[in-house]
UniProtKB/TrEMBL annotation:
Organism: Streptomyces filamentosus (Streptomyces roseosporus)
Domain AB hydrolase-1 stretches: 21-241
Name this protein carries in UniProt: Esterase
Superkingdom: Bacteria
GO CC terms in record: membrane
Keyword Amino-acid biosynthesis carried by entry: no
GO MF term list: hydrolase activity
UniProt xrefs under InterPro entries: AB_hydrolase_1 (IPR000073), AB_hydrolase_fold (IPR029058), AB_hydrolase_sf (IPR050266)
UniProt keyword annotations, A-Z: Hydrolase
Length: 254
């Protein structure tokens, strides 16, 4: 993929421009439920696949957050967007912050959906083995998804999430992105950054919910605010897309 723009598509043709980065367990198709609720006349949303995911499944790379940020900026260049907001879900939220650091004059605002902070997500030994084991074991992927959504979803929902994760991500990318989003710590570089930030989390997310945001993002970004969705866990784009769309559009409009 060197020198090529990642696969992406644009939803809407409104003046509000935003690049959208997906989570560790899913490609850009995980935003399909959200797209159904976004006003195409007010926003232009560029949804892209990270290397090793979705239509970029076979794309080779280092599979790091730095690479995701650089690839996303290349998409913005391809679109001719001089300025834009960045929406990042989970690991996508960490890559979004690197875009801010790499192109501060272009990134107008950040929206983090259950986002990983600039400090990463420290894992104890048991958790590290669980997450690393999920690379080759779909049952462990299912356990993580079930836990981070509060055990609220039935077998069909969980099966669909696991199947998409397995079929639309490469094992190499899945494993390498884990190391990058979980361990790298650059929070001192973002401390006191004045960019407007919206954090949207699910009330049933035990990992990256309100408490985690208060300990990280809200300490480092003085213009950040938090919105908690009552009917969601770690995957608001799929669990509560209507309310997420409302929050996103209100923030971008402001």
């Amino acid at each position: 993929m060197t020198g090529r723009v990642l696969p992406y598509d644009v939803h809407g043709d409104g003046p509000g421009r935003a690049l959208v980065l997906h989570n560790w367990f899913g490609d850009r198709s995980t935003f399909d439920p959200l797209r159904a609720h976004l006003d195409e006349t007010t926003g232009s949303y560029a949804f892209l696949d990270c290397r090793g995911y979705g239509e970029a499944l076979d794309a080779e790379g280092a599979y790091t957050m730095e690479e995701v940020a650089a690839d996303a900026l290349a998409v913005a260049d391809d679109l001719g967007w001089d300025s834009f907001s960045v929406i990042g879900h989970s690991m996508g939220g960490k890559a979004a912050q690197l875009m801010l650091l790499d192109a501060p004059g272009r990134v107008r605002s950040l929206i983090g959906i259950s986002p990983v902070s600039a400090a990463g997500f420290p894992l104890d030994e048991e958790s590290r083995q669980l997450f690393a084991g999920a690379v080759d074991d779909p049952a462990l992927r299912r356990a993580i998804i079930d836990h981070t959504t509060g055990g609220r979803h039935g077998a069909p929902w969980l099966d669909a999430a696991v199947d998409r994760s397995v079929n639309r991500s490469s094992a190499a990318a899945f494993r390498s992105y884990l190391d990058s989003w979980a361990t790298a710590d650059f929070h001192e570089r973002v401390r006191d950054n004045p960019v407007p930030v919206l954090l949207v989390v699910g009330a049933h997310d035990p990992a990256l919910g309100a408490e985690a945001m208060e300990a990280t993002w809200l300490r480092w970004y003085p213009n950040a605010r938090l919105e908690v969705l009552a009917d969601a866990g770690h995957y608001p784009p799929e669990e509560n897309p209507k309310d997420l769309a409302r929050a996103v559009e209100a923030f971008l409009a402001a």
